[in-house]
């Protein structure tokens, strides 16, 4: 009786017999496999679906960077023009400039809209062909520029250019982070990328604001020649690019969250579906 009870008890244990040993080995392997799966699930990374989202957002950010580069490299940030009748002849002068250089061109008065009081716009065909463009000297020699007897404020112009260059550096840093996130499959790199994109957009908009203040300072430096000023298409590109980069940075930040904001805001809707 005691021997029978001992054999039954021994056979019931996981490692008591051949059958128990096989089942114990299978259970141990299953536990190890489950732990490895949970460890892999706990490890942060970018899946295939999330990589598609990252690529889509990176395309949006790339569009913003391209528009920002276009605006920074062109000289149509602002147009300055006196009255059409200021020179009392058949032509008038219009000037336009950006961060790096200024251009002055002559326009025929007959080509200008009769309802327009000032000379321009600068996109009209000029009376003397190509515009006369010169780079600003306050970047190398520190000299201010004179436009229609008005003097630029080099501190404001250099501040606007410095903000623009720093925003380009932040864009390049964000691109490097996105490339690392896609190549390494690590979700961590999305956080600095989101910050760099958003911060570069803010810097771009600040550059536009400081530039506009430099234009106002230029106009207030001398009142001999009354000028009409208006921001041109390069400034519009800067404004659009700044908004796109800020939105792209915010969306990249949403991808770094460990949960879906929509599921957190609408839990009942997702539980029903």
From TrEMBL:
Compositionally biased intervals (Gly residues): 14-24
Family annotation (InterPro entries): PMP22/EMP/MP20/Claudin
Transport found in the keyword field: no
Origin superkingdom: Eukaryota
Membrane topology per record: Multi-pass membrane protein
Alphabetical UniProt keywords: Membrane, Transmembrane, Transmembrane helix
Origin species: Aldrovandia affinis
Protein name according to UniProt: Voltage-dependent calcium channel gamma-6 subunit
Taxonomic lineage: Eukaryota, Metazoa, Chordata, Craniata, Vertebrata
Entry GO terms, CC: L-type voltage-gated calcium channel complex
Pfam families (alphabetical): Claudin_2
Gene Ontology biological-process annotations: regulation of calcium ion transmembrane transport via high voltage-gated calcium channel
GO MF annotation list: calcium channel regulator activity
Segments traversing the membrane: 56-78, 158-183, 195-219, 231-255
Compartmental location: Membrane
Stretches for region Disordered: 9-28
């Amino acid at each position: 009786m005691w021997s029978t009870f001992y054999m039954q008890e021994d056979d019931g244990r996981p490692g008591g017999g051949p059958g128990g040993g096989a089942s114990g080995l299978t259970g141990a392997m299953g536990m190890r496999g489950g732990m490895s799966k949970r460890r892999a699930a706990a490890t942060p990374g970018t899946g295939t679906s999330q990589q598609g989202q990252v690529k889509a957002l990176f395309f949006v950010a790339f569009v913003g960077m391209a528009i920002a580069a276009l605006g920074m490299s062109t000289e149509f940030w602002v147009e300055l023009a006196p009255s059409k009748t200021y020179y009392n002849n058949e032509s008038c002068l219009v000037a336009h400039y950006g961060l790096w250089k200024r251009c002055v061109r002559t326009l025929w008065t007959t080509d200008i809209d009769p309802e327009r009081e000032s000379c321009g716009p600068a996109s009209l065909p000029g009376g003397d062909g190509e515009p006369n463009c010169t780079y600003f000297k306050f970047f190398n020699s520190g000299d201010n520029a004179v436009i229609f007897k008005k003097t630029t404020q080099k501190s404001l112009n250099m501040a606007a250019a410095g903000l623009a260059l720093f925003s380009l550096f932040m864009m390049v840093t964000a691109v490097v982070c996105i490339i690392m996130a896609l190549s390494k499959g690590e979700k961590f790199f999305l956080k600095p990328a989101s910050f760099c994109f958003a911060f570069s957009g803010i810097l771009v908009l600040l550059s536009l604001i400081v530039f506009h203040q430099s234009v106002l300072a230029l106009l207030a430096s001398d009142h001999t020649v009354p000028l009409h000023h208006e921001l041109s298409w390069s400034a519009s590109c800067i404004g659009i690019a700044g908004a796109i980069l800020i939105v792209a940075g915010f969306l990249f930040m949403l991808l770094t969250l460990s949960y879906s904001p929509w599921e957190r805001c609408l839990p009942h809707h997702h539980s029903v579906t």
